Amino acid sequence: MKRSLLLALILAILPRAAAAQHPLAEGGPYDPAVPTPRSVLGYELGDRFTPHHLLHRYFERVAEASPRVRLDTMAVSFEGREVLLAVVTSEANQRRLDEIRADARRLADPRGASATELERIVARMPALVWLGYTVHGNEGSGVEAAIAMLYQLAAGQDAETRMILDSAVVLIDPVQNPDGHERHVQDVMRARGALGIPTTPGAMVHQGNWPGGRTSHYLFDLNRDWFIHSHPETRGRVARFLDWAPHVAVDLHEMGSNSTYFFAPPMEPFNKNVHSSILKWWDIYAASNAEAFDRHGWSYFRREGYDEFYPGYGVSWPILTGAVGMTYEQASSAGGAIRRRDGTVLTLREAASHHYAAAWATARTSAARRTERVRDYLEFRRSAVTDAERGAMRAIVFEPDAQGRADSLAARLRANGIEVRRLAAAAEARDATPYGEATAGRVRFPAGAYVVDLAQPQGRLAKALLEPDAQLDSTFIAEELESRRTGRSNRFYDVTAWSLPYTYRVRAWWTRTVPGPLEPEATSPATVASPALATARYGYAFEAGSEAAIRMLAGLLADGVRVWYAPRAFRSGEHAFPHGAFVVRVAANGDDVHETVRRLAAESGARVVALGSALVDEGTDLGSNSVFPVRPPRVALVGGDGVSAYSFGFAWFAFDQRIRYPVTTVRLASLPGLLEEFDVVVLPSAQPGAIDRQLGDGGREALAAWVRAGGTLITLDGATAWLAAERTGLSRLRLSRDTARADGEPGAPLPASVPGAIVRAVGDTLSPLLAGIHDPVFPVFVDGSEIYGVPKDLRPGEAVIRYEAEPRLRLAGYLWPEVPARLAGTPYLWTERVGRGRVIGFAQDPNFRDLWRGLLPLFANAVFFGPSM
Question: Strands 563-566 and 618-619: what pairing?
Fold first, then answer.
């Protein structure tokens, strides 16, 4: 019996079973061969949050049962959970899926194609719709809506479902953050009673436990990682996105429980690289969503609360590739059912229903207007080339460096789908403007310099990531200044600066023309096999500063190898170390030191040199008293209640994934009783009052005593404000207090919290804390309002890094008018002796989002040199 006849017979016999088999929408009939959510999960959608193993099981069962569904694994999270992508379309489209993907890639790069070829592709191309759910793990209604969406598309037999399947390929990413979502599910499950969910907002089921479910395994916000690529979830997702080149991308979130529903258009500011066609489509999809919500009498809003400026959001990055990116925000049901201010109870099922309705309306509109949407996408990709050819900023050039930062930046750009080429020979440009300067001039670039020609299909994304300063509209700034003066909150949603040449700390220029000659295609630096490392008679040496060197040092110390640091320049034979080096002395280590050094050099990629003698040809001999031992530190990283989960996660990631050095994570409240186990304590950002509450008077005194007895305390961002309080008794650093209003009017000072900018800083390169940072002037990140003053009895080596003088301070991003004068000359990195110990305070977080790769040596040096200085 044919499958269609069998289906008709079943539908005739069991009409009720074939109708509305998921509760988030009215529909039917359905293919009974496709399992319903209830049949696999054991409960109805919206009754509870679905854990990852059941989500995975359901998607697999549907893919096995339905010819409309193909399942892919994009990545595996740090905790071992698969990141799934369901490719859902009609049976006919599934049979030609390889052709569709090839067509998508051709439209994504239309260079060299004829108008006839491109028009034929547009005519046959289905709309590619990417639906991403629950990037913040505790925004759980998205997962339930994703399950409903999969079932409806896989099993629905109605005309509208078939139209979507025929005219679109729907790419369902059901849980973008599986580790955080699982943490949320388990928190709720443990707090949920047998008699239902208490709706009281303050109930435990709605609160979660530190660090909460929002973030990833390392407590990062994955909705900020789309161009940084720190996490496997993002790397896998971006690779698939580039492969599919979708035309529409929706990111489904949750917001506060007392809100309604948000969909695009967003509020200002918009990134200036957002193309005008995107604004047109925001209005088209808004009308479709509004119609779907009005049908039910549901409330919603637009143009408030969520901007489109930072390019690392889950919709901002797709927008800059040509997709219509849209954030959808549903009021949160918290633990599954919560009473709101208006007295209504919002349930998980209701929240999921709203997400389902918006996603369905988006898919329907994309399918119904597929040709128009695909043609506009093609025009976006073509105009990215032509607009850049006519633009003032045509190319970005950045110089290779011995520490490999430029190589890492080039690799990151390529992973973003951006073409990066290299100069085949030295070339001169007459119109090169150095980053941080306003005047163009003549520059000679070396062979091998990296060149990004912005006249490429991915050019708008390239420009957004690389341009020296993201432009904010002057009208927007004027409105923000007036809002601030009258006491209203600002609309800065995220950081205002992120230019990658600054964050990677490379020398860069922008030019009006493309220098050449360029290598014929994008290549990485030639991989040259390292020469076999000779067996050293005296020792082994390697320079500081690169990530490879940091990992090399960390591996040696973790393996118990004794290491010294020679801070002064020296030359031994043909090997010069102009800024000093780490030295492994053979006689001071065991017989296996040679093999250990070879193994770690191969694992880290560090350039290691064998030394035959302590006697050098130039510089300071290696037996000098200036050469000091680096003590292997036992490190505690402090977390728990009161500590910023983000700052904790940034540091944890730096230790695990960048530095590769073992640390012990401890709760702040437990720290006083564990201090004797550690040489270094890293205290991430936290409010000073929260630190005091967790430690108590006794804990604060125990920590101070530990430092005076020889411990090293490293504080980051907000924790440095606690360090600078007089009551801690650990530092002469103090917070500066602003006593004047910026506008000259009487009254309290205006708030001056910087919304994430990039400024110049000047470092004392004689300090071991700056080992590997050779240029005394370099960019740093500033965020927030804490500014510190140095004591009158300032001693040499204490203010290791200070912000640059006011006229040269700002590099990128927004500073309130009075901030430069307040910030200039104040410390970014402070250290001082306390008894036999040391405190090291960072005014900001050098590990922020794993974005500031150029500042990693500062943090690593604080950890490794702190106990040895």
Answer: unpaired
